[in-house]
Amino acid sequence: MTRILVVDDEPQIVRALVINLRARRYEVDAAHDGATALRLAADRHPDVVLLDLGLPDMDGTDVIAGIRGWTRVPIIVLSARHSSDEKVEALDAGADDYVTKPFAMDELLARLRAAERRRSEHDPEPASARLETAAFTVDLAAKKATRRGVDVRLTPTEWHLLEALVRNPGRLVSQKQLLRDVWGPSYRTETNYLRVYMAQLRRKLEDDPTRPRHFVTEPGMGYRFEP
Q: Which residues form the DNA-binding region (predicted)?
């Protein structure tokens, strides 16, 4: 059964969506704020997210960014915001589609089916947004790392490097790929950047940075994250 996460702070809209979706044999979870949406996305692994942008605790684009930190699940925005700039902002943040309120249920269901078809063409999603090792935990949805239960302060660059590695557990990630993904295409030969930032990650997350267990160097090739 396809699982849908509905995120909206208007109870009547949530109620209407839940009734209509369940009548069509969808499994449905509902969230009324962004924090709950991110938690449910990480815990329940929905197949499609229906997301309102005007949430009480954060903007919907922040929810999109949090979800996109670890999954490619289709996100359909449902919003009363009509301006093209706001639509472009949501799509640039990672939304797949944009439906303006008020909307016809038939149109929404058609867009939902299209999102399901696109999803079926992609590779399976990672098993979890949360990765735990003996030394530290990484929450890709919340964009947070903790060590022994204490939050670890990472710079944006350190986080991007960490994310690029932990999303590929057990796989060699080449130096060129890491430089391109974290710093951009013009930095493909700046391997000294990698050495500096890998040393910082190990110092902050490894039990023994001089003998890393989780961030392994493959000399001359790249790095590997071992859970």
A: 128-227
Query: Within 13 A of 170's CA, how many CA atoms are on the CB side?
Result: 1
Does CATH number 3.40.50.720 belong to domain 3-120? no
**pLDDT at position 43 over 90:** no
pLDDT attached to residue 123 = 47
**CATH topology agreement for domains 3-120 and 130-225:** no
Give residues with Cβ within 8 angstroms of 31, minimum separation 6.
Answer: 5, 6, 7, 37, 39, 40
Give the per-residue pLDDT at 211: 93
Q: What confidence category does residue 25 fall into, taking pLDDT thresholds of 50, 70 and 90?
A: very high
Q: How far apart are the first and last CA of the chain?
A: 31
Identify whether the C-beta of residue 49 lies closer than 8 Å to the C-beta of residue 74: yes
Question: How far apart are alpha carbons 34 and 103 in whole angstroms?
Answer: 22
Q: Tell me what percent of the chain is helix, strand and coil, each rounded to the nearest 5.
A: 40, 20, 35
Cβ atoms of 37 and 31 closer than 8 Å: yes
Q: Give the fold, CATH level 3, of 130-225.
A: Arc Repressor Mutant, subunit A (1.10.10)
Tell the residue number behind the tokens 């999303």, with chain if given. Answer: 167
Residue range 172-206, pLDDT digits in tens: 888 888 888 888 777 778 889 999 999 999 999 99
For 160, the token pair is 């991007």
